[in-house]
Amino acid sequence: MPSTLFALSTLLGLAAAAIESCPANAPISCQTSGTISNTCCTEVQGQVLQTQFWDSNPATGPAKSWTIHGLWPDNCDGTYEATCDSSRAYTDIGCILLDKGHGDILSYMETYWKDYQGDDESFWEHEWSKHGTCYSTLNPDCYSNYEKEDELVDFLNTTITLFKDLPTYEWLADAGITPSSSKTYTNAQISSALQKQFGATPILSCSSGELNQVEYVFNVRGSVAKGQFIAVNPTGTKGNCPKSGIKYLPKDLSTTPKANEGSCS
User: Fold this and answer.
1) Is position 126 annotated as part of the catalytic site?
2) Is there a catalytic annotation at residue 102?
3) CA nearest 234: which of 57, 53, 50, 65?
4) Model-level pTM?
5) pLDDT attached to residue 10
């Protein structure tokens, strides 16, 4: 079985140098009791869920890849806080990335972090505002020489870095589970294939019997920006897919929405 420890050692175009370093023995999230003394090095909402979509119609992203939904903090029990700081509900995220010299991150997001209606920018803004602003380890106070929106860049970068390490399509295909218009799969087949590669059981979600979302659950040692992500079983919701008859439909790329074009002033 592969290691269940995911270290953010190969950040995509980002050194995350501005955020304060955490000690190597920082407490692991969801394994502390009482008040957390250093909320910059241990997440207050301790579990982190890297969540992926499979949109077949309308289709999003490449034919042989899942796409990013988001990176969600969780209170270690399935509950979560949301929209935690309206003063940091940043907009024009694509422009922010370009202004900060992170066109590589933006390019990746434009391919793999897609909105099913074509409004990628609004989708990114929603995910940041609802979930990203709630990470205690990404609070501006956790940074030295902080510049506005540094924590946004770290949030986006961590999300896509984890996504790159969680190739759901490949993991399922390795187990003989591929999109089909006629074949169906059992919950156990899908869960087992992903658990074998990930090291823990992910959450599977379905819509009308169609597999459309996977959530990979982590505890974190250190900051979400550059900590160690430890694969764990979910402690809250367990998903809603049936035991059998799960459809995993091919993407109909003819239904892919045209992305709304933005502009930076």
Assistant:
1) no
2) no
3) 50
4) 0.94
5) 46
